[in-house]
Amino acid sequence: MSSRSQRNFQMQNWHLSSIVVGIILAVFGLYFIFGISRQTDAKNAKCTETTTGVISDVKQNGSEFVSTIDYTIEDFDKTLTVETKKDLGLGNSVEIRYEPQTWSHMYIEGISKTGKDDIKFGIVSLLAGGIFIVIGVIVLKKKKKARAEQ
């Protein structure tokens, strides 16, 4: 356990840590806005073939619903499990878009992640980083002003 003077010394420059954390969050936010969102949209754009899936099972998991969707691609029966905020309804049909060459990526309108989701997350991260930077700069200016008055 550290003494009071050691804790005071450790907290002496916390405003610099705040600025650094803010910069990291802001860069992270910019990366999501300009990088990840474009990658997600490009990946979804490759999904050009469509098939129809039928919701075969819906289970509630806390505030989310876990739905099982059965579908067929080129005579192969497949199953997909998705988590959604709303109940998709047992027996309902959904349109599934997929990559024709590999079937490795599926896109379901209104359910799958899009670039807009990444942009929202990036904006929140950017704002949080801005708040940390502003707080750190304000405290830094107050400390400089206090030193100048002494």
Can you characterise this structure?
The chain is an alpha+beta fold. Helices cover 49% and strands 27% of the residues. The protein has 3 helices and 5 strands. It has helices at 4-10, 14-45, 115-149, and strands spanning 49-61, 64-73, 76-84, 93-98, 106-107. Strands 3-2-1-4-5 form a 5-stranded antiparallel β-sheet, with no helix packed on it. A hairpin with a 2-residue loop joins strand 2 (64-73) and strand 3 (76-84). The longest helix is centred in the last third of the chain and has 35 residues, at 115-149. The chain is elongated. The model has no long low-confidence stretch (mean pLDDT 83).
Keywords, please?
alpha+beta, 49% helix, five-stranded antiparallel beta sheet, single chain, 5 strands
Q: Can I get a quick summary?
A:
This protein has helices spanning 4-10, 14-45, 115-149, and strands at 49-61, 64-73, 76-84, 93-98, 106-107. It has 150 residues and is of the alpha+beta class. The mean pLDDT is 83.
Distance between the termini: 33 Å
DSSP helix fraction: 40-55%
Strand order of the largest sheet: 3-2-1-4-5
User: What share of residues are in beta strands?
Assistant: 25-35%
Low-confidence stretches: none
Rg calculated over all Cα atoms: 24 Å
Shape: elongated
Instruction: Tell me the number of helical segments per DSSP (H or I, 4 or more residues long).
Output: 3
Overall SS class: alpha+beta
Overall pLDDT metric: 83
The profile of the biggest β sheet is:
5 strands, antiparallel
Written as H for each helix and E for each strand, in order along the chain, the element string is: HHEEEEEH
- Number of separate strands: 5
